[in-house]
Amino acid sequence: MLMHELSRQECVEWVTDWLRRFADACAAGDSGAAAHTFCADGYWRDVLALTENIHTYYGHEQIADALGAALAGSALSGIALEEQHDEFPRVATYAGRDVVEAIFHFRTRLGRGRGVVTLVSEDSHVRAATMLSALEQLDGRPELLGDNRPTGLNFSRTFHGPNWLDQRNRERLYEDRDPAVLVVGAGQAGLSVAARLKHLGVDTLVIDRNQRVGDNWRKRYHSLTLHNEVWANHLPYLPFPDGWPVYIPKDKLANWLETYVDILELNCWTGTELTQATFDEAAERWTVQLGQNGEGRVLRPRHIVIATGVSCKPKRPEFPGESEFIGRMLHTSEFDDGAAFAGERVLVVGSGTSGHDIAHELYEHQAEVTIAQRSSTTIVRTGRQHAGRVYKAYESPRPLADTDLLTTSVPFPVLRRNYQYLTRDLAELDRDLLDGLAASGFALDFGEDGTGFQMKYLQRGGGYYMDVGCSQLIADGKIGLLSWSEFERFNASGVVLRNGGRLSFDAVILATGYESQEALIESIMGTDVASRVGPIWGFDDEGELRNMWRPTPQPGLWFTAGSLAQARIYSKYLALQIAALEAGLIDVGHRDALPRGVIRDVDLEGSMVAVPVSA
Question: Does the model's pTM come out above 0.90?
Answer without folding.
Answer: yes
